[in-house]
Design goal:
With 374 residues, this protein is an alpha/beta fold. It has eleven helices and twelve strands. The protein starts with 26 loop residues before the first strand and ends in a 5-residue tail after the last strand. This is ABC transporter substrate-binding protein.
Length: 374
């Protein structure tokens, strides 16, 4: 099926992932941080599974040895800053990966910038992170790109005309919802209303009463899977039977576990889903299922690709004279179209990634490819 692509090609320069011939073996330590406990742990836990699988793959090649030092930031900005200080002061840490909440990464980036420690994040999408530091890169698309694509898709492909927007009150929710709304209006839709909620909220009936009175034909939820599932369940209880739309923040198996039948037919987007099998994903799917006895999420795939991209950067740094923090960071900017299961990775000068999206829907409690793609 056709996909709108922001990268020039599906495959480009393929860099070897081991050290250059004759290069002495080094150890590359990845400082991994994300929410590994609490309501939003699914992002961090799944990313780490992808990182660990890629580390195992890279280590089997011999030469450079990779290891992971993981720390739980509990989705708290204060913890994020303390962890950044810890990684900066540990000279064994060559690169930082992970991050499941944009606000945590935003709080930590000044620390990393000061100590010149490169960051390659996989689940933080706030546009505020673009150009935030020459040491920041991410292999996930920004909210501005993803939200706009979803807004266009909602109107042009799904035919929606009157949409109510609910979003979590943070950088992620505000950014993705604004991009969605702007694109939907541009395509001719009406935004019936916009309301914010806080992460951790449990009761959405007051907001949903306003939604019901507006009589939209769809509700877009700019938020994570926990609140999105609760909103969908409470909406159904109030008799609201409209099309639900959400974001990559809801792209997690926990959405169905928490939302049950209420999230059936919800449409979301993401950069990967195991139901979409291609030649470039076959080995990853087989290895992941053999290791974890489950199908990988988009966050696992992004974590895997980020680590394999690090492998390419380390190889390039090795050829240039040595694997240091600065050399890895320089190599990130030089890589082009590194193959991956979420598509090729190329970083723009802003630190953002070029890439593409799939549109998915919930059918019988599973994510499947939506009938219409852009």
């Amino acid at each position: 099926m056709a996909r709108r692509r922001f990268a020039a090609a599906a495959f480009g320069l393929c860099l070897a992932l081991g050290p250059a011939a004759g290069q002495a073996a080094d150890t590359v330590t990845i400082g991994f941080t994300a929410a590994l406990s609490g309501d939003y742990a699914a992002y961090g836990v799944n990313m780490k599974k992808g990182v660990d699988l890629a580390v195992e793959t890279l280590n089997k090649k011999g030469g450079v040895t990779y290891k992971v030092e993981a720390v739980d930031d509990r989705a708290e900005a204060r913890e994020g800053v303390l962890i950044a200080q810890r990684f900066c002061s540990d000279q064994a840490v060559n690169v930082v990966m992970g991050y499941s909440v944009s606000s945590i990464a935003l709080a930590a980036m000044p620390v990393y910038n000061d100590c010149k420690l490169p960051v390659l994040a996989s689940a933080v999408t706030s546009p505020a992170l673009s150009n935030s530091s020459p040491y920041f890169h991410r292999n996930v698309l920004t909210d501005a790109v993803q939200g706009a694509m979803m807004g266009t898709y909602a109107v042009k492909s799904l035919g929606l005309k009157k949409i109510y927007v609910l979003h979590q009150q943070d950088d992620y929710g505000i950014g993705v919802s604004k991009a969605f709304s702007d694109a939907a209006v541009k395509e001719g839709a009406t935004i019936a209303g916009t309301e914010a909620y806080l992460l951790g909220d449990k009761d959405f009936r007051t907001l949903l009463t306003k939604v019901r009175a507006a009589k939209p034909d769809a509700i877009f939820v700019g938020g994570f899977y926990t609140e999105t599932a609760a909103i969908a369940k409470q909406a159904r209880q109030l008799g609201i039977k409209v099309q639900f739309l959400s974001t990559d923040g809801a792209l997690n198996e926990a959405l169905m576990k928490l939302g049950g039948n209420a999230v059936e037919n919800m449409v979301i987007y993401g950069m990967f889903d195991p139901s979409i099998k291609t030649p470039s994903t076959a080995d990853f799917l087989t290895a992941y299922q053999a290791t974890y006895k489950e199908e990988p999420s988009a966050w696992a795939a992004l974590g895997y690709d980020a680590t394999m991209t690090l492998g390419a950067a380390v190889d390039l740094a090795s050829k240039s004279g040595g694997v240091t923090r600065e050399a890895i960071n320089t190599a990130f900017s030089q890589l082009k179209d590194v193959p991956g299961v979420t598509g090729p990775t190329t970083f723009e000068p802003s630190g953002d990634r070029s890439g593409s999206l799939y549109f998915l829907t919930v059918k019988n409690g599973k994510f499947v490819l939506a009938p219409a793609q852009m």
